[in-house]
Amino acid sequence: KKKKKKKKKKDTASDFLRMIILLGPPPRTKALSGWAKEKNLHEIKVPLWLKPRIPALKRIPLRPRYGQSACLIDSWCYIFGGQHADGSPPTQEECFLRLNLTTLEWQNIFTPAELIRNNHSSIAHNGVCYFFGGTYNKQAVNDLIVYDPVPERIYRIEPNKLDDPNHQPPSPRYGHTMGAHNNFLYIFGGYAMDGKKYEYTNSLHSFNLETKVWTKIELENPPKERVHHSSFMNGNDMWIFGGRTP
Fold it and tell me: Are 110 and 95 in contact (CB under 8 A)?
């Protein structure tokens, strides 16, 4: 008897959507593009991941990385720092990139070697990018890096070069988060250097963008110490989710 050939299962819209939601961009992009032509993407009522075709950056290879950060100013997405799969840091030419979300074109921003960071935090506030802490040469740091697109310059604010008795900068750390509200930046948690060893922390510090003074904020009923969590600001509130605890 001839064996009946099994019918090949057709990809349906629901199958594709399920795959996209769980795994990210599907491997069979041709099928997706064909399906997308038949459906108005604006009518889709469920989350959908799409992988845009972005031309490579000329002269500079874009290698996979992790531990980087991203923030948004107008139509520009800024990608900063991180490290490659082999643990090596990005070069000065590839450390700081920005993507124009309208034209989908990459540009690179040359970064001094001493400012390359990994596992730091970042936020865009009032048209300026701020990057705090992370690791440099496999050691945690606690300086603040500032990138101002107009005029285009990147510089560092040292944490301990301020003669003010109220100045209380955060200790060197990584895996923390940062928020911004009004004229202040806020740093919470992370894996911080305490003397000669790293410890989980739940400390909260604020940075005054006018006076350049760090202040440690004493908390009532503080959350548990944590690292690699996520957070966001909503009005006057800082919301914190998850992370790794001791």
Answer: no
**Token representation of residue 154:** 């990147």
**Which segments of 15-165 are extended strands (E)?**
69-73, 76-80, 96-100, 105-109, 121-125, 128-132, 135-136, 139-140, 144-148, 153-157
Instruction: Say how many Å lie between the first and final Cα of the chain, rounded.
Output: 64
How sure is the predictor about 10, in pLDDT bands with cuts at 50, 70 and 90? very low
CA 163, CA 245: separation in Å to the nearest integer? 35
Of 161 and 227, the structure prediction assigns the larger pLDDT to: 227
Query: Where does the pLDDT of residue 5 fall: very low under 50, low under 70, confident under 90, or very high at 90 and above?
Result: low
DSSP string, 144-170: EEEEETTTTEEEEE-SS----TT--PP
pLDDT at 40 over 90: no
Task: Sort residue 35 into left (φ over 0), alpha (ψ -120 to 50) or beta.
Answer: alpha
